[in-house]
Amino acid sequence: ICEYVASQIKYLLSEECRIGKNNVQPKDIAILVRKKKEAVLIQDILEVNGIKSIVRSNESVFNTEECKDLK
Questions:
Q1: Could you tell me the pTM of the whole model?
Q2: Rounded to an integer, what distance in angstroms lies between the CA atom of residue 67 and that of residue 62?
Q3: Measured distance CA(59)–CA(34) in Å, rounded
Q4: Whole-angstrom Cα distance, residue 33 to residue 50?
Q5: CA–CA distance from 71 to each of 36, 58, 66, 68 (Å)?
Q6: Which tens digits make up the pLDDT trace of 7-35?
Q7: Gap between the Cα atoms of 42 and 32, Å rounded
Q8: Nearest to 9 by CA among 27, 36, 33, 21
Q9: DSSP string of 3-46, one letter each residue
Q10: What is the Cα–Cα distance from 49 to 58, expressed in whole angstroms?
């Protein structure tokens, strides 16, 4: 599924796709997931496909695995 999502986003960001008169921009696209694990997986696939992304979450940075590794 992640590969399919990445391919669809690549297509949407091509100059062929528009919203009104404007080309689709990365800020026009959102991917919703239920779990952090899913967000990490999709973000990795997007990166491999040359698509920049960010993850937004309500989770505290202090509850992340990276922070737990530092303890």
A1: 0.72
A2: 6
A3: 12
A4: 20
A5: 20, 22, 9, 5
A6: 999 999 998 899 999 999 999 999 999 88
A7: 10
A8: 27
A9: HHHHHHHHHHTSTT-EETTEEP-GGG-----SSHHHHHHHHHHH
A10: 27
